Amino acid sequence: MASAELPVLKPADYGTDQDVRWCPGCGDYSILAQMKKVMSTLNMSREDTVFVSGIGCSSRFPYYMNTYGMHSVHGRAPAFATGLKSSRQDLTVFVITGDGDALSIGGNHLMHVLRRNVNLNIILFNNRIYGLTKGQYSPTSEKGKVTKSTPMGAIDNPIHPLSVAISCEATFVARSIDVHIKHLAQTLERAVAHKGVSFVEVYQNCNVFNDGAYKWATDKDTKAETVLELEHGKPLIFGKDRDKGIRLNGMTPEVVELGKGISEDDLLFHDEKTTEPTLAYLLTRMSHPEFPEPIGVLRDIDAPCYDDAINYQVQQAKETKGEASLDKLFNSGDTWVVE
């Protein structure tokens, strides 16, 4: 008998029949489209893929993917996903979250899933606003941001998501932009291919409550001067005429012009494979308008995975101590009878 061949799935096959309930023009549509495209390109199994989300506009994502999914508790998606991946290592698990969900109430959970290096793919939609609850400032809103909850301007220092990821020594850290669809698809593909935790921040426009937050990075007339696309082993060069670069002055980055006594060899060269996170962290601190903001992969290294280690310990315990039982556990060690 001829062996049965599995059908090649198209991007549309990864979507459900649910009405997509995001505002027309929302950047979330682009991320959804590119995710389905990437899954089709990689011919990923729908039955072996799970999307776990928390609360927020981004967290509706599992409803729109024809895979398994969990719409979990506010900020706790990393905890749910850690348990799932640890018990079912055969699954490909995504965490879909937003700047509010992941970095406020979920900050503690995000920090620990990153430092543990659980083999998950975390996609953080960053629109710098609370969209679902109608326009309050978020942990990534810029200082001075006027919103419904900060009518005189935000006084908080904003969190830089990639800085958090690098400081927790996440093994794969990247950034892309919702409308840079080719770049976004390539970034998601690399995240899926990485063994260990992958953290991808996507600059995403909320056209209702924070429209134009990243216009400087998406407008065709400005993006060449405001965005720096990282390439491993290449110097940090940007600009419409590729005539500007980033070099280090001590440990401080500075923008320089090429051709005025400065060559490419004087620039900082990108190395996503170095295990020392200092230079990657430095890149996360480069912010518009003082600097062009980096997109692409900042860090991609190998390290032991939490889910591998925990399953190894379970197997070792079974081999050395035998199969456990609740009755044996409850009647071991010091016990008390309460009457």
Question: How does this model look, in words?
Answer:
The protein is of the alpha/beta class and 339 residues long. Helices cover 29% and strands 17% of the residues. The chain has helices spanning 28-41, 77-87, 99-105, 107-116, 161-167, 181-193, 215-218, 223-226, 278-284, 306-321, 326-330, and strands at 49-53, 68-71, 92-98, 121-126, 172-177, 198-203, 227-229, 237-238, 244-249, 252-257, 293-300. The strands form two sheets. Strands 2-1-3-4-6-5-11-7 form an eight-stranded mixed beta sheet, sandwiched between helices. Strand 8 and strand 9 form a beta hairpin. Helix 1 packs across helix 6 (181-193), helix 3 (99-105) packs across helix 4 and helix 5 (161-167) packs antiparallel against helix 9 (278-284). It is globular.
Topology, please?
Elements: H1 28-41, E1 49-53, E2 68-71, H2 77-87, E3 92-98, H3 99-105, H4 107-116, E4 121-126, H5 161-167, E5 172-177, H6 181-193, E6 198-203, H7 215-218, H8 223-226, E7 227-229, E8 237-238, E9 244-249, E10 252-257, H9 278-284, E11 293-300, H10 306-321, H11 326-330
Parallel strand pairs: 1-2, 1-3, 3-4, 4-6, 5-6, 7-11
Antiparallel strand pairs: 5-11, 8-9, 9-10
